[in-house]
Amino acid sequence: MRSIRVWMLVAALTVTVAGGGLVVAGTSSDAPKPAWAAPSSSVVAAAVAVPPATPASSAPALSLGASALGASDQAKRISQLNAALKSVKGEFSVAVYDRKTGLRYVHRGSVKFDTASIVKVQVLACMLLKAQDAGRGPTSAEMKLAGPMIRLSDNNATTSLYNRIGGRNAVTKCNKRLGLTQTVVNARWGLTKTTAADQIRLLEELVDTKGPLSASSRKTAFTLMNTVNKAQDWGVPVVTRTGEIFTVKNGWDTRTADGGLWAVNTIGRITSKNGRVDVSIAVLTRRNKNMTTGVKLTERIAKLTRQHLRY
């Protein structure tokens, strides 16, 4: 079953164009962070097999943090997920961070994928940081763009806000503050390259009380990502259970460079009121036959992470 949503007061938004994940050309010029690159020495897990079409240099990366779980239990869960992912066809990357147990899982986490519309979360975070730097909250004009950008994936609103905050150069500088070391911003924002590991870092900044985003900014991001349009309520939300709360941003786009095949991505968080669940998930895919195929792939992978990591 899908989760309940936490509906919070959101400013009234006037929407003129409901966008998807299509690329729009921009006019502008160009708690401690998870140690994704350093596997725990206490746990050894088999790497996940890379799909045949993937170059050897794209081999999966696995990283684990200090966990409330015993090392053997943690390794068992990871081994089970590794085995399950071997049977999944398609080009994908997935990262999971369980804040309650400390378990971190990455499959091909350093391989770059096109963001499509998940980059809109970066744009939102950078807008909020820019407002903070000016000693203010976001203006009504900024929120009239940010709301449709996240809730409806409005491309025109995204382009306007992207340019308003300074475009590629500004978002690149902002990403450094957010700890996104593997994300390369493109002037055509939907062609930004990122990794599953970086998307987990971004999701964690949205809840990190010691991070650069203020409590007010974190609340704004949560509100928008928790109230996406029902038509875009797919991907991460599929693994939520009764009483749990989700945030999500999805992205989808056809790529000429891939012969018109689809990039389909989902990022988000799942939490529970009783505090038992507190998980960030990022699933990136590419070269899907169509959007429907891509959505099914992201959801299958997300379900497997919950089944085997048992969060």
UniProtKB/TrEMBL annotation:
Gene3D superfamilies found in the cross-reference section: DD-peptidase/beta-lactamase superfamily
Segments forming domain Beta-lactamase class A catalytic: 145-244
An annotated GO BP: response to antibiotic
One term of GO molecular function: beta-lactamase activity
SUPFAM superfamilies in alphabetical order: beta-lactamase/transpeptidase-like
Signal peptide interval: none
UniProt superkingdom: Bacteria
Protein name (record): Beta-lactamase class A
